[in-house]
């Protein structure tokens, strides 16, 4: 750009002898060097600090959702609970998204709506209702074990559909992390309540979430994370409108702490966490990002300890450490799979 400007608009000293022009060129190059260094691309597999922060926020807030659902579960049925969460999230996130549309309107067009409708129905609608219903039939340990089939499904589908392949360390780390979830579940000390309907609902929720991740990934190449999330929330809320009458009745009967818990679930684990997830998904391979959700059960144990005073068992702590080790392994890359860093100017 500097060369074009100089050619089109000669400077007053353009008639000076050649050495002076050479010195000016040298000085201009020396001043232009720092910005180029600042824009050095990240190495393959490297994630920006903002991306890491988005992953951490997502894991912590989704873990808190399990604690929140347990707290408000006696007051709200699965369908009304989902509609309540999505309604609150739609309002809160809408306050952020709608002003962006006024400045630069960029609504999806034509076929671009199909994947948004798909993950809106499956993830924000179907997943939440199925999981809420399953947790009324299963103990927390069994539910956590079954729902964590999701990252494995994401890794498989991402490898086939999104062409992310099957990195050796992703597979090894995922198996190790799933083993950690199994340790947490089996050592929870709770009586197993493996109701067949509950198991099927939990597996359905895991499958719906996995397919939704694969569908959402391409959308984030064209639509910002907050807008993509808000569209999905709105679609899910519309799907849950048949529960509106029941939600009104349960809100009238619910104690204030349960209502505040519903608001919390809508603002933090839904509006904020799904947005940070979408942002992270726009930066990271779907399979590797999904593996980070293995940290959710262990984080849930810590939050339950701090908030509900539930002292974790030794198995819970050991399982959490195993999950952490497994997720760490998924971040490793095989030497033969590493791509060389791009050369300057390439």
How would you portray this structure in words?
It is a single chain. The chain is an all-alpha fold and about 350 residues long. The protein contains 15 helices and no strands. It has helices at about 1-10, 20-40, 50-70, 80-105, 115-135, 140-145, 150-160, 170-185, 195-220, 225-240, 245-255, 255-280, 285-290, 295-305, 315-330. α4 runs antiparallel to α5. The protein starts with a helix and ends in a 16-residue tail after the last helix.
**Mean pLDDT score, rounded?**
80
Unreliable segments (pLDDT under 50, ≥5 consecutive)? 1-42, 337-346
Radius of gyration, taken over Cα atoms and rounded to an integer in Å = 25 Å
Helical stretch count?
15
Assess the beta-strand content as a share of residues: under 5%
The strand count comes to 0
The largest sheet, given as strand count, sense and whether it forms a barrel, is: none
Q: Which structural class matches the secondary elements? A: mainly alpha
Order of helices and strands: HHHHHHHHHHHHHHH
Give the overall shape, derived from the CA principal axes.
Answer: globular
Level of helix content? over 70%
Distance between the termini: 18 Å
């Amino acid at each position: 750009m500097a060369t074009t400007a100089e050619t089109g608009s000669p400077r007053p000293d353009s008639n000076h002898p050649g050495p002076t022009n050479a010195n000016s060129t040298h000085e201009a190059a020396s001043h232009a060097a720092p910005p180029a260094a600042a824009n050095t691309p990240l190495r393959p597999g490297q994630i920006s600090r903002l991306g890491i922060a988005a992953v951490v926020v997502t894991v912590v807030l989704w873990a808190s959702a399990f604690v929140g659902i347990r707290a408000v579960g006696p007051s709200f049925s699965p369908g009304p609970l989902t509609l309540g969460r999505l309604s609150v999230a739609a309002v809160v996130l809408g306050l952020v998204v709608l002003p962006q549309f006024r400045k630069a309107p960029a609504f999806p067009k034509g076929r671009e709506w199909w994947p948004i409708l798909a993950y809106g129905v499956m993830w924000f609608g179907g997943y939440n209702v199925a999981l809420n219903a399953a947790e009324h039939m299963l103990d927390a340990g069994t539910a956590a074990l079954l729902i964590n089939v999701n990252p494995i499904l994401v890794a498989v589908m991402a490898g086939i559909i999104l062409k992310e392949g099957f990195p050796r360390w992703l597979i090894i780390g995922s198996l190790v992390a799933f083993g950690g979830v199994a340790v947490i579940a089996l050592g929870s000390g709770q009586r197993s309540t493996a109701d067949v309907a509950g198991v099927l609902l939990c597996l359905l929720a895991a499958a719906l979430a996995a397919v939704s991740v694969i569908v959402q990934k391409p959308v984030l190449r064209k639509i910002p994370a907050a807008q993509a999330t808000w569209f999905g929330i709105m679609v899910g809320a519309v799907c849950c409108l048949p529960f509106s009458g029941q939600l009104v009745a349960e809100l009238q009967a619910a104690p204030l702490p349960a209502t505040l818990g519903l608001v919390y679930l809508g603002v933090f684990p839904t509006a904020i966490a799904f947005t940070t997830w979408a942002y992270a998904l726009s930066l990271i391979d779907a399979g590797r990002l999904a593996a980070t959700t293995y940290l959710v059960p262990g984080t849930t144990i810590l939050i339950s300890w701090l908030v509900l005073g539930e002292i974790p068992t030794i198995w819970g702590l050991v399982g959490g450490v195993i999950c952490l080790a497994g997720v760490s392994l998924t971040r490793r890359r095989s030497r033969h799979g590493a791509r060389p860093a791009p050369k300057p100017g390439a």
